[in-house]
Every structure is written in C-alpha cells, then in structure tokens.
Amino acid sequence: MSYVTQGIDRDHIGGLSAIESQLTVDQAISSVPHRVRGADYCVAGMRWHWSGVDIEVLHPLTAEQFEGNNSSCVVRISAGGESILLSGDIEKAGEQAMLRNAAESLDLQVDGVVVPHHGSSTSSSPEWVQALSPQWAIFPVGYRNRYHLPKQAVVERYRQAGAKLWRSDQSGAVQIHLGGETPPRGWRQSQLKIWSDRPRPEERLLIE
Q1: How far apart are CA 140 and CA 117, in angstroms?
Q2: CB under 8 Å to 158, separation ≥6 — which residues?
Q3: CA distances (Å), origin 109, targets 20, 131, 136
Q4: Does residue 111 have a pLDDT over 60?
Q5: Is the pLDDT of residue 206 over 70?
Q6: Per-residue CA distances from 207 to 59, 140, 175 (Å)
Q7: Domain spanning 46-207: which CATH class is it, in words?
Q8: Where are the alpha helices (DSSP H) in 6-132?
C-alpha cells in the first residue's frame, strides 16, 4: 500500500500510527517526510494507476518550493471520467503557483474539490475557484471549531461558482463515488433513523 500525507498539522497526519498498525505500507510521500517514517517528499509529476484509478501529485513543483501550509501535497484522483482534487492546507501563494503552472501545461478543472485549508479566508482565491470550476465542494471542518471555519465569504465563492456544497461538521463523513451517477453523500444523511430529526432548511442546502 502507498499513501500520501497532505499537511503538517495533526489534523492531517495525526492518524498515521493507526493506519500503519493495520496495513503494510510499501511507500509513503509527504510534505513533511521527516515526521513520517520512511517517507519521501511529494513532488508534482508523481503518478500511480491502480485498479482503474489514476492518482497524480500536482503540487509542489519541488521539495524546496514552499514551507508550511503551502508545501502541502495536492493530489488529483481520477476514475470513471470524474476527478477530485485533494488540496491539503495550501493557501493563496500555493494556489497562485499552481495557477501559473496551469497557464503553461496543467489543467486544473475537476468535478470536485476538498476545499483548501478547511475554508479559511487565506485560501480559495476567486481565481483558484474559477480555474477549478468544481461541480461540488467539500469543507472538512470540525463542529463548532475555534477558528469559525469555513468562512462565509469562501462558502459563497464556491456557491456562486455553481458548486454544490457539503460540510463535515453538518453531514459527518462525506462519501464520494467517482465515475458513477451517485453524488457525494453525507454519513448522517444516509444513516437517518425514523426518530432522527430531519436537517434544517439551511443545513439541507449544504448537504444535499
């Protein structure tokens, strides 16, 4: 098994020991390989193909290009004619670097995106959202998180771009099926019991 870690903080790499205790890892890449046993740097151009799934690292261009959040591994996963971008914690500087690369050779359009840096105002610049042109966007955020993420301006930016939105604090884990007719689906939405409260109207807009 191979895996990629996408950020420098515990919300990105905190569960590695649990994975390693259950699976045999043949290869690991990371933006912080010194914190991941046996890992190498992630660098744009790395590719894998497995069981009909294509995995490609799009950022950073070199191991030394950025430090901190902007060094996050950005990975595109494609299957069945659909694609999703896993963007880690990149901020506007990382986005701009990818946009410059896209102007030369990189197509950034995807069907879906895990929103950079949890919907922080430091990320998801208008140019970035326009270049991605996603049909759906997932905000990975903790319930009542102390940073008050996602920021409403960022939410509206994706909404105005025509993306359907999901938030993990409202919907729980989000299931994604690439290459089929099934749209992303929140765990809470799919696990409702007959005695469960239905989502409030303002929540329904974000999880359906």
Answers
A1: 8
A2: 115, 124, 129, 134, 137, 165
A3: 33, 6, 12
A4: yes
A5: no
A6: 29, 13, 11
A7: alpha beta
A8: 10-13, 16-22, 92-104, 126-132
Closest CA to 115 of 155, 174, 171, 71: 155
The token pair at 3 is: 């895996």
Helical (H) or strand (E) element with 60: none
pTM value? 0.86
DSSP 135: S
The three-state secondary structure class of 92 is: helix
Judge contact between 131 and 157, C-beta under 8 A: no
Neighbours of 161 (CB within 10 A): 16
Q: Both ends of the chain: CA-CA distance in Å?
A: 33
Compute the C-alpha angle 203/164/130, nearest 5°.
135
Decide: 141 and 119 in contact? Cβ < 8 Å.
Answer: yes
- Tracing tokens 């959202």 back to the chain, one arrives at 129
Cα gap 192→15, rounded to integer Å: 27
Mean of pLDDT values over 179-197? 74
Measured distance CA(83)–CA(77) in Å, rounded? 5
pLDDT in tens, 121-146: 999 999 999 999 999 999 999 999 99
Over residues 74-90, the pLDDT tens digits come to: 999 999 999 999 999 99
Domain ranges of the chain: 46-207
Please identify which residue in the block is written with the tokens 């050779």: 105
> How, if at all, do strands 185-186 and 174-175 pair?
antiparallel
